[in-house]
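Table S2 (continued). Query chain:
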Amino acid sequence: MSVQVLMRDENYRPRGFLIASKVEMMRRLNRPDTFIVNVSAESAQQATRLREGWGLVVQDGDFKVSGVITQFFRTAKDNNLEVEVTCTSELVFLGDRLTYPDPAHEETQQQAARWKERGACETVIKNLVTKNLGSEALESRRVPGFAVAPSQGRGGDASVDTRLKNLLDVVEPLATAGGLRMSVQFQPGALTFDTIPTRNLSRRVRLSWVSGEVIGWEMTDRAPSVTAVIVGGQGEGVDRRLDSRQRLDSWRRRIEIFKDRRDTDDAGSLEKTANEELDKGISERIMKVTVQESETRKFGVAFDVGDTITLDVAPNVTPYDSRVVEAKIMWSENTRTVELTAGALDLTLSQERIERLRREIAQLATV
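Corresponding output:
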């Protein structure tokens, strides 16, 4: 196969290569990538050197993804050892942390109720990462060898107001709204976190059935889950301040939810909250495309998740521009297959349950 698999230890030092019989990867916008490596029989013994805290680096030409090992699976059949290794990219380290109100002090010595910051989106994100797991974090919370690239002030304006929330959940919507793709790059001995501007490549990258680059597709149009938001500010009962925003579309439904913001009466904050909820519930088109790559249209080199490309999937479907949000890549024997998801992601059953739970919790705060 064209793909190489490098072992690295807990200090990010290279520890030799593995031969893989198959590699499957899911690459997502501003979420950790995941990949599974099926080790070939001739490298199975070499794979026994892997330890907890180690990782793997998958590289195919200029496309490289590294990850920390999250699961080993070993089995023996007819005295032949089979090894399967599951990894998650080091962006998961952000998901391991909470946003401390006062990151400079231990939990028992917090001197602020909330962490608040306003500024360039890239700067806001990198400050949160630096102070909660990077070089300015408490030693007990610091990830060794984890550096944060200097901010260039990209991504427009952003603000954050957080307290003990999951760090990745806080910065993900900021990055996506700011047109930034978060990544953690491996170099021998170190990891570097950065935010890279996504690109509009609709004129340069056109995947078409005519040229044979689109060999399969499926499309789903999903109705909105929210089109009207009622926000509750301060006060109780009849004296409580209520505000609302709506955003009707071609589905012609008014779908109402309530959002609790009893911590503020500021009109701008209430409007911002309403718009954020409306953004979460917009109608969406999900396009999945199986791609036959060419040298000039190779995923991970010519374009990546977060980039906007043109999809021309069939003679009876109007070509349109859409952002790539997920890619499934599989290397097997001497072939590489790519399936792209553009526009939006399918909701899993767990995500649907979470959405229902979120609405039920909101109802408890309507007093």
